[in-house]
Specification:
about 190 residues; alpha+beta; tt1808, chain A; two-stranded antiparallel sheet; 10 strands; about 25% helix
Length: about 190
């Protein structure tokens, strides 16, 4: 007789209770994905540099139009709270002090991927689509391109395209803003 393991999944509220109780430390690099607590990849210099470059570009281009946040969580109720590399959120007077950003307050999520590309593409991006995040950019640091995901549905993003160095990309919410793909990589 084979023993079948049962997994215990968690809600966002239970995840927060574990943090408050000290079961999970504030400095642990984990995120809640589909009810499971997942260790995040360590940040390497290439990843750090790409995040820093793109965050700086977006801060310059969207300074008074959106809140740009690197490494903060976005709540996807009931069972996920990923920590995208960069989030572009609606401006709020309280700067999200009362609650973390949620899908309805999100313009764009950006994931930088090097070694965890499969997890980002196959686990996180479908979850963002199911939550209704309007747009996700997956920056593939190895292939040196940006996958752009738009038109979310429960089955995934309906519009997917790839931008390469030399291209300029615009967030759907800000079509007048052009981000040079080259600027992310160098």
């Amino acid at each position: 007789m084979a023993i079948q393991l049962q997994r215990r999944t968690f809600t966002v509220d239970e995840y927060h209770q574990m943090i408050e109780a000290g079961i999970l430390r504030d400095d642990e690099r984990v995120e809640l994905l589909n009810g499971e607590i997942v260790a995040m990849a360590p940040i390497e210099s290439r990843h750090f540099a790409a995040v820093s470059r793109l965050e700086r570009i977006l801060q310059r281009l969207l300074a008074d139009r959106a809140l740009i946040s690197a490494g903060s969580a976005v709540t996807l109720r009931p069972d996920s709270e990923p920590q995208p590399d960069i989030g572009v959120y609606h401006l709020r007077n309280d700067f999200y002090e009362s609650a973390l950003p949620e899908p309805q307050g999100t313009y764009l999520i950006i994931e930088m991927s090097d070694t965890f590309l499969v997890i980002d593409r196959n686990l996180k991006i479908p979850r963002y689509a199911r939550a209704g995040i309007p747009e996700v950019w997956l920056v593939d640091l190895q292939a040196r391109h940006v996958e752009i995901y738009r038109s979310p549905s429960p089955e995934g993003y309906q519009d997917v395209r790839v931008a390469s160095p030399g291209d300029r990309i615009s967030p759907a919410a800000f079509p007048d803003v052009a981000v040079p793909v080259d600027g992310i990589f160098s």
